[in-house]
Design goal:
By secondary structure, the chain is α/β, with parallel strands linked by helices. The protein has helices spanning 40-53, 71-80, 96-105, 119-126, 131-144, 163-172, 188-191, 193-196, 200-216, 277-283, 285-291, 305-308, 313-320, and strands spanning 12-16, 57-61, 84-89, 107-113, 148-155, 177-182, 221-224, 250-253, 258-260, 270-271. Helix 3 (96-105) crosses helix 5 (131-144).
Length: 335
């Protein structure tokens, strides 16, 4: 199933500008990454390169981006080059003063990670006391200065039955976007998967309930981005591509400039300091394999494969060693 088109450049670069973090999350994929950080001068040079390649937006992550004292200067430079700038944060360091600086630096969106409506459950999962309280508290000043906020929730054993309560938490805090992220088995996510990950049948039940909630909820946009929901008859008409978006709409850049297809696929396909992004985007053998997967196993006879394309490439690679194998989260058995 050969792709007959690709975008001329990634729409978004997800950039882990630091691996430093003030949290100890039980599913973290970057805590043990020893990569050094690019300094601001090199970062600015690289931002120029991705702008010239035609990238539209940068989403800063990590680690915790706010641990970089030069984050605001980096954002000013990026937004000044016409790039849309956003950030993922645990919210712990965001005060009213910080929110003003983020707005002045050009940030248009900030996503805050909150994994439970229950403070103690979230705090235990993230490894820091009062992190739930601080995360919710961060939303107010961000909203006040006009930065679009979202809540990002990693779905796992601790919250898979709390969809309605998570939606209500977002509503009570004036958040219009709620992102349900499927659990990834990378880094500590792999080490703790037996305790935290759901079984395929549990994922099926969760997605049925989440899609039902999405259909009934008009005041909050609920994002349920997982290719395997195609087998439930759901098609996301807003997506430009089928299957995983990694390597098709976005790329990941690590703190040292290494380029990977996504943050959960540890295959280095270049380095933004030394390599041409357009050349990598158009000619990387790894990206070509991801864009043109070969169905294996039960995918070969599945009628939903043309929409699902095997599910999450990162999960297949992490748990089976082959990006073409069926997503281990998939519950569907073709007849």
């Amino acid at each position: 199933m050969k792709n007959d088109w690709i975008l001329k450049a990634p729409l978004t670069i997800n950039w882990a500008i630091t691996n430093r973090c003030n949290f100890k999350c039980r599913h973290c994929y970057s805590r043990d990454d020893p990569s050094e950080e690019l300094d601001r001068q090199n970062l600015s040079h690289c931002i120029e390169k991705i702008k010239e390649a035609g990238v539209f937006s940068i989403n800063f992550g990590g680690g915790e981006p706010l641990l970089r004292k030069d984050l605001f200067d980096i954002a000013v430079f990026a937004s000044g080059r016409g790039l849309s700038v956003s950030m993922n944060s645990n919210g712990y360091l965001i005060s009213s003063e910080t929110a003003v600086k983020l707005k002045e630096s050009g940030f248009s969106k900030v996503g805050i990670s909150i994994d439970s409506h229950i403070p103690g459950t979230h705090d235990d999962f993230r490894g820091v006391k009062e992190s739930h309280k601080r995360a919710l508290k961060a939303l107010f000043p961000l909203n006040e200065v006009g930065i679009e906020t979202s809540i990002s929730t990693v779905i796992c054993k601790i919250n898979c039955k709390d969809i309605d309560k998570l939606i209500e938490m977002a509503r009570q805090n004036n958040v219009k976007h709620l992102n349900f992220h499927n659990y990834k088995c990378t880094g500590l996510g792999y080490s703790n998967k037996d305790e935290l990950d759901l079984s395929p049948e549990e994922w099926r039940v969760f997605y049925l309930e989440a899609l039902n909630a999405k259909q009934k909820t008009s005041d909050i946009h609920i994002s349920v981005e997982d290719p395997i929901i195609a087998s439930l008859g759901y098609k996301d008409g807003s997506s430009l591509v089928k299957g995983s978006v990694c390597g098709k709409l976005s790329l990941n850049i690590k703190s040292n400039g290494d380029i990977t297809p996504c943050g959960f696929i540890p295959i280095v396909i270049g380095n933004i300091l030394n390599d041409n992004l357009s050349e990598i985007w158009n000619n990387s053998p790894v990206l070509d394999m991801m864009r043109n997967k070969t169905p294996r196993g039960k995918c070969q006879k599945c009628g939903y494969y043309s929409d699902c394309l095997g599910g999450c490439t990162a999960r297949a690679l992490a748990l089976t060693g082959d990006i073409n194998n069926p997503d281990p989260h998939c519950w569907y058995e073709s007849q």
